Protein backbone atom coordinates (compact mmCIF):
# COMPACT_ATOMS: atom_id res chain seq x y z
CA UNK A 1 0.00 0.00 0.00
CA UNK A 2 2.87 2.33 0.87
CA UNK A 3 4.49 1.62 -2.52
CA UNK A 4 1.26 2.43 -4.34
CA UNK A 5 0.98 5.79 -2.56
CA UNK A 6 4.50 6.67 -3.55
CA UNK A 7 3.84 5.71 -7.15
CA UNK A 8 0.64 7.74 -7.14
CA UNK A 9 2.46 10.82 -5.77
CA UNK A 10 5.14 10.40 -8.42
CA UNK A 11 2.55 10.19 -11.18
CA UNK A 12 0.87 13.36 -9.87
CA UNK A 13 4.15 15.30 -9.87
CA UNK A 14 4.92 14.17 -13.41
CA UNK A 15 1.41 15.06 -14.51
CA UNK A 16 1.59 18.58 -13.02
CA UNK A 17 4.98 19.20 -14.61
CA UNK A 18 3.75 17.92 -17.95
CA UNK A 19 0.67 20.12 -17.70
CA UNK A 20 2.70 23.21 -16.92
CA UNK A 21 5.05 22.48 -19.79
CA UNK A 22 2.16 21.86 -22.11
CA UNK A 23 0.48 25.14 -21.11
CA UNK A 24 3.72 26.98 -21.67
CA UNK A 25 4.12 25.67 -25.17
CA UNK A 26 0.49 25.35 -26.18
CA UNK A 27 -0.91 28.60 -24.73
CA UNK A 28 -1.59 31.41 -27.25
CA UNK A 29 1.65 33.27 -27.85
CA UNK A 30 1.76 37.02 -27.48
CA UNK A 31 1.71 38.71 -30.87
CA UNK A 32 3.91 41.73 -31.36
CA UNK A 33 7.29 42.85 -30.11
CA UNK A 34 8.06 41.75 -26.57
CA UNK A 35 10.67 43.53 -24.43
CA UNK A 36 11.57 43.71 -20.77
CA UNK A 37 12.37 46.69 -18.57
CA UNK A 38 11.67 48.20 -15.17
CA UNK A 39 9.08 50.71 -14.01
CA UNK A 40 10.44 54.26 -13.82
CA UNK A 41 8.93 57.61 -12.86
CA UNK A 42 9.96 61.19 -13.41
CA UNK A 43 12.10 62.23 -10.47
CA UNK A 44 12.79 65.66 -8.99
CA UNK A 45 15.30 66.60 -6.32
CA UNK A 46 14.04 68.96 -3.62
CA UNK A 47 17.01 71.25 -3.08
CA UNK A 48 17.96 74.19 -0.93
CA UNK A 49 18.86 77.49 -2.58
CA UNK A 50 20.95 78.73 0.37
CA UNK A 51 23.43 77.12 2.71
CA UNK A 52 22.89 76.61 6.42
CA UNK A 53 21.65 74.21 9.07
CA UNK A 54 18.37 72.47 8.25
CA UNK A 55 15.34 72.34 10.55
CA UNK A 56 11.71 71.29 10.31
CA UNK A 57 12.18 68.28 8.00
CA UNK A 58 9.40 65.77 8.74
CA UNK A 59 8.92 63.91 5.44
CA UNK A 60 10.41 60.43 5.03
CA UNK A 61 10.68 57.86 2.27
CA UNK A 62 7.22 56.72 1.21
CA UNK A 63 5.45 59.94 2.19
CA UNK A 64 3.35 61.86 -0.31
CA UNK A 65 4.12 65.53 -0.96
CA UNK A 66 2.31 68.15 -3.03
CA UNK A 67 3.65 70.96 -5.17
CA UNK A 68 4.47 74.02 -3.06
CA UNK A 69 4.45 72.09 0.22
CA UNK A 70 6.97 73.32 2.81
CA UNK A 71 9.56 70.61 3.32
CA UNK A 72 12.19 72.20 5.57
CA UNK A 73 13.70 75.48 6.76
CA UNK A 74 17.31 76.65 6.58
CA UNK A 75 18.30 78.63 9.68
CA UNK A 76 19.88 81.95 8.55
CA UNK A 77 19.62 84.67 11.22
CA UNK A 78 22.08 86.81 9.24
CA UNK A 79 19.70 87.04 6.26
CA UNK A 80 16.82 88.06 8.51
CA UNK A 81 18.99 90.80 10.05
CA UNK A 82 19.93 91.93 6.55
CA UNK A 83 16.25 92.48 5.74
CA UNK A 84 15.85 94.68 8.84
CA UNK A 85 18.94 96.68 7.81
CA UNK A 86 17.67 97.20 4.26
CA UNK A 87 14.20 98.18 5.48
CA UNK A 88 15.79 100.90 7.61
CA UNK A 89 17.89 102.11 4.66
CA UNK A 90 14.78 102.35 2.48
CA UNK A 91 12.88 104.26 5.17
CA UNK A 92 15.77 106.72 5.49
CA UNK A 93 16.02 107.26 1.73
CA UNK A 94 12.26 107.81 1.46
CA UNK A 95 12.32 110.36 4.32
CA UNK A 96 15.13 112.29 2.63
CA UNK A 97 13.17 112.35 -0.62
CA UNK A 98 10.09 113.72 1.12
CA UNK A 99 12.25 116.40 2.74
CA UNK A 100 13.70 117.47 -0.62
CA UNK A 101 10.28 117.53 -2.29
CA UNK A 102 8.75 119.59 0.54
CA UNK A 103 11.48 122.24 0.36
CA UNK A 104 12.49 124.49 3.29
CA UNK A 105 10.09 124.94 6.20
CA UNK A 106 8.58 128.31 7.14
CA UNK A 107 11.07 128.64 10.01
CA UNK A 108 13.95 128.09 7.62
CA UNK A 109 12.59 130.75 5.24
CA UNK A 110 12.29 133.20 8.16
CA UNK A 111 15.88 132.45 9.15
CA UNK A 112 17.11 133.07 5.59
CA UNK A 113 15.12 136.33 5.46
CA UNK A 114 16.61 137.47 8.77
CA UNK A 115 20.14 136.70 7.56
CA UNK A 116 19.53 138.68 4.38
CA UNK A 117 18.20 141.66 6.34
CA UNK A 118 21.17 141.53 8.72
CA UNK A 119 23.70 141.42 5.87
CA UNK A 120 21.89 144.29 4.14
CA UNK A 121 22.13 146.38 7.30
CA UNK A 122 25.86 145.64 7.61
CA UNK A 123 26.37 146.65 3.99
CA UNK A 124 24.38 149.88 4.39
CA UNK A 125 26.52 150.90 7.38
CA UNK A 126 29.76 150.01 5.59
CA UNK A 127 28.70 152.04 2.54
CA UNK A 128 27.82 155.06 4.68
CA UNK A 129 31.18 154.79 6.48
CA UNK A 130 32.99 154.67 3.18
CA UNK A 131 31.13 157.75 1.90
CA UNK A 132 32.00 159.62 5.11
CA UNK A 133 35.66 158.59 4.82
CA UNK A 134 35.67 159.93 1.26
CA UNK A 135 34.56 163.37 2.54
CA UNK A 136 37.12 163.29 5.34
CA UNK A 137 39.86 162.23 2.94
CA UNK A 138 38.99 165.17 0.67
CA UNK A 139 39.34 167.48 3.67
CA UNK A 140 42.65 165.84 4.60
CA UNK A 141 41.24 164.51 7.88
CA UNK A 142 42.00 160.80 7.17
CA UNK A 143 44.75 159.02 5.38
CA UNK A 144 44.53 157.10 2.14
CA UNK A 145 45.06 153.85 4.07
CA UNK A 146 42.00 154.52 6.22
CA UNK A 147 39.97 155.21 3.10
CA UNK A 148 41.10 151.90 1.54
CA UNK A 149 40.13 150.05 4.69
CA UNK A 150 36.64 151.56 4.63
CA UNK A 151 36.28 150.61 0.95
CA UNK A 152 37.34 146.98 1.64
CA UNK A 153 34.86 146.69 4.51
CA UNK A 154 32.10 147.94 2.23
CA UNK A 155 33.01 145.40 -0.50
CA UNK A 156 33.07 142.50 1.98
CA UNK A 157 29.68 143.51 3.35
CA UNK A 158 28.30 143.79 -0.17
CA UNK A 159 29.44 140.28 -1.12
CA UNK A 160 27.97 138.85 2.11
CA UNK A 161 24.66 140.55 1.32
CA UNK A 162 24.63 139.11 -2.22
CA UNK A 163 25.35 135.62 -0.90
CA UNK A 164 22.54 135.92 1.66
CA UNK A 165 20.21 137.02 -1.12
CA UNK A 166 21.13 133.95 -3.20
CA UNK A 167 20.46 131.63 -0.27
CA UNK A 168 17.11 133.30 0.32
CA UNK A 169 16.21 132.87 -3.37
CA UNK A 170 17.19 129.20 -3.32
CA UNK A 171 15.06 128.69 -0.26
CA UNK A 172 12.03 130.06 -2.06
CA UNK A 173 12.65 127.88 -5.12
CA UNK A 174 13.11 124.70 -3.09
CA UNK A 175 15.45 121.79 -3.87
CA UNK A 176 17.00 121.43 -7.29
CA UNK A 177 15.21 118.99 -9.66
CA UNK A 178 18.48 117.11 -10.11
CA UNK A 179 18.83 116.54 -6.36
CA UNK A 180 15.24 115.34 -6.09
CA UNK A 181 15.71 112.95 -9.03
CA UNK A 182 18.95 111.60 -7.56
CA UNK A 183 17.21 110.91 -4.25
CA UNK A 184 14.27 109.30 -6.03
CA UNK A 185 16.70 106.93 -7.75
CA UNK A 186 18.27 106.18 -4.36
CA UNK A 187 14.84 105.17 -3.08
CA UNK A 188 14.39 102.80 -6.04
CA UNK A 189 17.84 101.33 -5.43
CA UNK A 190 17.00 100.75 -1.77
CA UNK A 191 13.76 99.02 -2.79
CA UNK A 192 15.67 96.67 -5.09
CA UNK A 193 18.22 95.86 -2.38
CA UNK A 194 15.40 95.11 0.08
CA UNK A 195 13.61 92.91 -2.46
CA UNK A 196 16.81 90.91 -3.00
CA UNK A 197 17.26 90.46 0.74
CA UNK A 198 13.66 89.30 1.16
CA UNK A 199 14.12 86.83 -1.69
CA UNK A 200 17.09 85.31 0.11
CA UNK A 201 15.00 84.92 3.26
CA UNK A 202 12.19 83.32 1.24
CA UNK A 203 14.72 80.91 -0.23
CA UNK A 204 15.46 79.58 3.25
CA UNK A 205 12.08 77.82 3.04
CA UNK A 206 12.47 74.61 1.02
CA UNK A 207 9.35 73.57 -0.93
CA UNK A 208 8.49 70.65 -3.18
CA UNK A 209 8.39 71.52 -6.91
CA UNK A 210 6.00 68.68 -7.82
CA UNK A 211 3.35 66.30 -6.51
CA UNK A 212 4.80 62.92 -5.82
CA UNK A 213 6.13 60.22 -3.54
CA UNK A 214 9.32 60.62 -1.50
CA UNK A 215 11.72 58.04 -2.91
CA UNK A 216 14.83 58.85 -0.88
CA UNK A 217 15.62 61.05 2.11
CA UNK A 218 19.19 62.33 1.96
CA UNK A 219 19.54 64.66 4.98
CA UNK A 220 18.41 64.87 8.60
CA UNK A 221 17.48 67.85 10.77
CA UNK A 222 20.52 69.66 12.12
CA UNK A 223 22.73 68.79 9.16
CA UNK A 224 24.49 71.51 7.17
CA UNK A 225 23.28 71.72 3.58
CA UNK A 226 24.71 73.62 0.62
CA UNK A 227 22.87 75.16 -2.33
CA UNK A 228 21.85 72.49 -4.82
CA UNK A 229 22.07 69.61 -2.35
CA UNK A 230 19.16 67.18 -2.77
CA UNK A 231 17.34 66.99 0.57
CA UNK A 232 14.64 64.64 -0.78
CA UNK A 233 14.16 62.89 -4.09
CA UNK A 234 10.51 62.80 -5.16
CA UNK A 235 8.94 60.67 -7.88
CA UNK A 236 5.95 61.86 -9.89
CA UNK A 237 3.87 58.66 -9.76
CA UNK A 238 1.46 59.98 -12.40
CA UNK A 239 4.31 60.14 -14.93
CA UNK A 240 5.08 56.42 -14.98
CA UNK A 241 6.89 54.64 -17.83
CA UNK A 242 9.10 51.75 -18.92
CA UNK A 243 12.16 52.06 -21.11
CA UNK A 244 12.70 49.08 -23.41
CA UNK A 245 15.02 48.45 -26.33
CA UNK A 246 13.82 47.45 -29.80
CA UNK A 247 16.17 45.99 -32.43
CA UNK A 248 16.79 48.18 -35.45
CA UNK A 249 15.28 45.48 -37.67
CA UNK A 250 11.89 45.94 -35.94
CA UNK A 251 11.93 49.70 -35.59
CA UNK A 252 9.73 50.19 -38.66
CA UNK A 253 6.92 48.28 -36.97
CA UNK A 254 6.39 50.80 -34.16
CA UNK A 255 5.52 54.49 -33.94
CA UNK A 256 4.82 57.16 -31.34
CA UNK A 257 1.27 56.88 -30.02
CA UNK A 258 1.10 53.15 -30.60
CA UNK A 259 -0.63 51.14 -27.86
CA UNK A 260 1.21 48.63 -25.73
CA UNK A 261 0.40 46.02 -23.08
CA UNK A 262 2.44 46.02 -19.88
CA UNK A 263 2.60 43.10 -17.45
CA UNK A 264 4.17 43.57 -14.03
CA UNK A 265 5.43 40.67 -11.94
CA UNK A 266 3.95 42.22 -8.80
CA UNK A 267 0.44 41.97 -10.31
CA UNK A 268 0.23 38.58 -12.11
CA UNK A 269 -2.66 38.17 -14.48
CA UNK A 270 -3.20 41.91 -14.82
CA UNK A 271 -2.45 43.90 -17.97
CA UNK A 272 -1.77 47.65 -17.81
CA UNK A 273 -2.42 49.90 -20.75
CA UNK A 274 0.63 51.61 -22.22
CA UNK A 275 1.45 53.96 -25.07
CA UNK A 276 4.70 54.71 -26.88
CA UNK A 277 5.70 58.27 -26.01
CA UNK A 278 9.25 58.48 -27.29
CA UNK A 279 11.49 56.62 -29.72
CA UNK A 280 15.18 57.44 -29.57
CA UNK A 281 16.70 58.90 -32.72
CA UNK A 282 20.11 57.40 -32.00
CA UNK A 283 21.01 53.73 -32.17
CA UNK A 284 23.00 52.09 -29.40
CA UNK A 285 24.25 48.66 -28.51
CA UNK A 286 21.89 46.45 -26.50
CA UNK A 287 22.47 46.98 -22.77
CA UNK A 288 24.70 44.37 -21.12
CA UNK A 289 21.83 42.90 -19.13
CA UNK A 290 20.44 41.31 -22.32
CA UNK A 291 20.41 37.54 -22.23
CA UNK A 292 22.75 36.44 -25.03
CA UNK A 293 25.97 37.74 -26.54
CA UNK A 294 24.35 37.82 -29.98
CA UNK A 295 21.64 40.12 -28.65
CA UNK A 296 24.22 42.35 -26.99
CA UNK A 297 25.89 42.81 -30.37
CA UNK A 298 22.68 44.11 -31.99
CA UNK A 299 21.99 47.79 -32.51
CA UNK A 300 18.81 48.83 -30.74
CA UNK A 301 16.73 51.94 -30.17
CA UNK A 302 15.41 53.01 -26.77
CA UNK A 303 11.62 53.23 -26.59
CA UNK A 304 9.76 54.94 -23.76
CA UNK A 305 6.35 53.43 -23.01
CA UNK A 306 4.10 55.50 -20.76
CA UNK A 307 1.84 53.53 -18.41
CA UNK A 308 -1.49 54.52 -16.92
CA UNK A 309 -0.76 54.57 -13.17
CA UNK A 310 -3.91 56.35 -12.02
CA UNK A 311 -4.17 53.99 -9.04
CA UNK A 312 -0.59 54.77 -8.00
CA UNK A 313 0.19 51.09 -7.43
CA UNK A 314 3.17 50.87 -9.79
CA UNK A 315 6.45 51.72 -8.10
CA UNK A 316 9.91 52.49 -9.48
CA UNK A 317 12.08 49.43 -9.97
CA UNK A 318 9.29 46.89 -10.55
CA UNK A 319 10.20 44.50 -13.42
CA UNK A 320 7.79 44.74 -16.36
CA UNK A 321 7.22 42.99 -19.70
CA UNK A 322 6.04 45.15 -22.60
CA UNK A 323 4.24 43.90 -25.70
CA UNK A 324 4.17 46.39 -28.54
CA UNK A 325 1.24 45.62 -30.82
UniProtKB/TrEMBL annotation:
Q: Which domain of life is it from?
A: Bacteria
Keyword Coiled coil present in the record's keywords: the answer is yes
Coiled coil among the record's keywords?
Answer: yes
Instruction: Please classify the protein's predominant subcellular localization into one broad category.
Output: other
Domain YbhG-like alpha-helical hairpin: residue ranges: 77-202
Q: Which InterPro entries match?
A: Beta-barrel_RND_2, HH_YbhG-like, UPF0194_transport
GO CC terms, sorted: cell envelope
Keywords annotated in UniProt: Coiled coil
**Per the database record, which ranges form the CusB-like beta-barrel domain?**
241-324
One Pfam match:
HH_YBHG
The entry's localization annotation reads: Cell envelope
**Residue stretches in coiled coil:** none
- UniProt-listed PANTHER family: BLL5650 PROTEIN (PTHR32347:SF23), EFFLUX SYSTEM COMPONENT YKNX-RELATED (PTHR32347)
Q: What protein does this entry describe?
A: HlyD family secretion protein
